Amino acid sequence: ETGVTQTPRHLVMGMTNKKSLKCEQHLGHNAMYWYKQSAKKPLELMFVYNFKEQTENNSVPSRFSPECPNSSHLFLHLHTLQPEDSALYLCASSQVAEGPIWLHFGNGTRLTVT
Amino acid sequence: AQSVTQLGSHVSVSEGALVLLRCNYSSSVPPYLFWYVQYPNQGLQLLLKYTTGATLVKGINGFEAEFKKSETSFHLTKPSAHMSDAAEYFCAVSNFGNEKLTFGTGTRLTIIP
């Protein structure tokens, strides 16, 4: 079982749909992240949850709504998306403590908005 | 503020040749530096990291990188490329007390048989 699991792997949705992306980490970490990866663009940090509290919202449109019910689970709720939101959405986790941190990524959800 | 610049969005090398992927960083405080690799249809996997101590760090799959403070660089190398090294490589920077990593734009490595 991989350390960070994302479901679904692929998602196609219309602009009026509501869907959710799920992420689960099995590493005992205390922080979780959502990143957006679009073609020919740098990785974009969307949200950070540290000890279940949102510590970063990187000017993400309100059509993306994160939820972190506990330190092992992270959701990204999607509604009324635009075609330009099509991308690979990556979840990551880390152990935030004194000293350096590094991220452990899931395999991502490939989202296509039609 | 911190940033990362990866020179060359695409690099091609012949199988068996030296791999050199360039990364320069900007950080107002001592940095932590990382290289990640992404294979097709997968997430990012940590290759190696520099935090403190020895400036030459070794990672998985025969890769290594050297932290050069005077040049603000953290270039990734591998003496002999293998077909399985074909992937996208990302350099990233963070620092003490920072829960976020700043990534470069990535370098796609192609291996020529």
Main beta sheet of chain B, described?
6 strands, mixed
- Radius of gyration based on Cα positions of chain A: 13 Å
Helix content of chain A: under 10%
Low-confidence stretches of chain A: none
Give the strand tally of chain B. Answer: 12
Spatial separation of the terminal alpha carbons of chain A: 32 Å
* Residue-averaged pLDDT of chain A: 91
Q: Which two chains have the most extensive interface, and how many residues on each? A: A-B, 26 and 22 residues
Chain-averaged pLDDT of chain B: 94
How much of the polypeptide of chain B forms β-strand, as a percent range?
over 45%
Summarize the structure in words.
The complex is a heterodimer of chains A (114) and B (113). Chain A has 114 residues and is mostly beta strands. Helix content of chain A is 0%, strand content 56%. Chain A contains no helices and eleven strands. Chain A has strands at residues 4-7, 10-13, 18-25, 31-37, 44-50, 53-57, 64-70, 73-79, 87-94, 104-105, 109-113. In chain A, the strands form two sheets. In chain A, strands 2, 4, 5, 6, 9, 10 and 11 form a seven-stranded mixed beta sheet that branches. A four-stranded antiparallel beta sheet of chain A has the order 1-3-8-7, with no helix packed on it. In chain A, strand 5 (44-50) and strand 6 form a beta hairpin. Chain B is mainly β and 113 residues long. Chain B has strands spanning 2-5, 10-14, 19-21, 24-27, 31-38, 44-50, 56-58, 64-68, 73-78, 87-95, 102-103, 107-112. In chain B, strand 5 and strand 6 form a beta hairpin. Classes of the chains: A mainly beta (114), B mainly beta (113). The interface between A and B is medium-sized, with 26 and 22 residues.
Architecture blueprint of SSEs:
The complex is a heterodimer of chains A (114) and B (113).
Chain A: E1 4-7, E2 10-13, E3 18-25, E4 31-37, E5 44-50, E6 53-57, E7 64-70, E8 73-79, E9 87-94, E10 104-105, E11 109-113
Parallel strand pairs in A: 2-11
Antiparallel strand pairs in A: 1-3, 3-8, 4-5, 4-9, 5-6, 7-8, 9-10, 9-11
Chain B: E1 2-5, E2 10-14, E3 19-21, E4 24-27, E5 31-38, E6 44-50, E7 56-58, E8 64-68, E9 73-78, E10 87-95, E11 102-103, E12 107-112
Parallel strand pairs in B: 2-12
Antiparallel strand pairs in B: 1-4, 3-9, 5-6, 5-10, 7-8, 8-9, 10-11, 10-12
